[in-house]
Amino acid sequence: MHKLGSHVVFRFFLSLGVSVLGGLLFTAIHTPIPWLLGPMIFMLLGSQLAKLPLMWPTSIRDYGILIVGYSIGLTLTGEALQGILHQLPMMLLMTLLLIGLCTLTAYVASKLTDFDFPSLLVGSIPGGLSQMVSLAEEMKSINLTLVTFLQVTRLIMIVFCVPFLLFSPWIGGTTGGGTDQPMIEPATWSALFPEILLYAPLCVAGAWVARKLRFPTAFMLGPMIVMCIIQLSTAMHTPNLPSSLLNISQIMIGSHVGLMLRPQQLQRKMQTVTLAIMSSVLLIAGSLGLSYLLMNMFSLSAATSLLSMAPGGMDQMSIMAHEVNANLSVVSGYQLFRILFIFFIVSSLLKIILMHMLRKKEASTSSSVT
Length: 370
Hints:
Elements: H1 2-28, H2 34-48, H3 58-75, H4 78-86, H5 88-112, H6 117-124, H7 129-138, H8 144-166, H9 196-212, H10 218-233, H11 243-258, H12 269-298, H13 302-309, H14 314-324, H15 328-369
Helix pairs in contact: 1-2, 2-11, 3-10, 3-11, 4-15, 5-6, 5-12, 5-15, 6-8, 7-8, 8-12, 9-10, 12-13, 13-14, 13-15, 14-15
Transmembrane segments: 12-29, 35-56, 63-85, 91-109, 142-167, 187-210, 217-238, 244-261, 273-295, 336-354
GO cellular component, one term: membrane
Keywords: Membrane, Transmembrane, Transmembrane helix
C-alpha cells in the first residue's frame, strides 16, 4: 500500500516537473499564455511521445478553475451585469448561430465519412467537455471514444490557436490591447490578506453547493456567484489576485487538458484525426466571423469579441481575457450564457432528437429483417 502511494506521488511530481518546464520554456520564447500552453503541450508530448507515466488529479484542475472563478466574480459589478442583460438577445442569437454551424459541420462530416451523425453532433457542440461526454455516456448508441476525441481536439486547438489569433496584427491583443476595460492593478500576495481568509472558504463552499446542485462547471460558477453577491451586497474590500497565482491556476488547468488526448483508443485513426482538425478549424473560422459581427454591433475590442465567441472552455477563455486585458465580464457573460443554454436546453433537446432517431433506425432495421 505504501509502495503504491509513493508511486502515485512520484508520478505527480514528475508531471509537475514536466508542466513547470513547459511553462518556463514557453515563457522564455515569449509564447502567448505560456503557463497555460506550456504545461498543456509538454504533458501531451510527455504522455504520448515520451510515454512518461504522467498523471494529474481532476481535483487540482478544479481548484485551478476555482481561482479563475473568483477572478471573474470580481468583474461582475452592478454596471457589468446591466451590460450583460442588455446583450442577452445578442447572446441568444450568437449561441444559436454557433450551434447551427456545429450541426451543419456534423451533418456534412457524416455524409463524407463512415461516422454516424448523432456521435458527430455530440462531439461537435461546444457545451463543456464533461457535459457532452456525460450526455454521450447516457446514449448507448453514441461512439463515446469519438465524442471525447472530437471534444478534446477542439478544446486543445482552440486553446492553442486563439492566443496566436489574439496576438496577431488583425486583433493586436498585446497586454492592455483590449480597449474596453481599464487596466487591472497588479496585486501582491500581501494585499490578499486578511480578506482572502474569509473569501477562500466561501468560494470552496460555493463550488461545493454548485456541484451538489449539478451546475455545469460548478467550480467556476460557485465562486463567481459568491464573489458577485459579496460585491453587490457589501462594501467589503475584494482584492485582485497576483499574476503569479493566476499563472499557478493556468498550470493546474493546462496540465489536465494536455493529458486528456488519447489517440491510441481510436479506430480509423487517420480519418478521425483529420475530421477532428478540420471541424475545429471550421468552428474557429465561424467564431471569428461571429466575433467580427459582435465587435461592430457593440463597439467592443477585437480581443473581447473573439474571446466571447471562441468555443473553448470558459476557464481558458477567461485566463486569456485576463492576459490581454479584454472585458472579462463581457467574455464570461457570453461564455456562461452559451454553457447554460447548451446545458439546460440543447442537451435536453439533443436527448429527445437522438432517441427519436435511434427508435426510427431500430424500426427500419426490424422491418427490413422481417
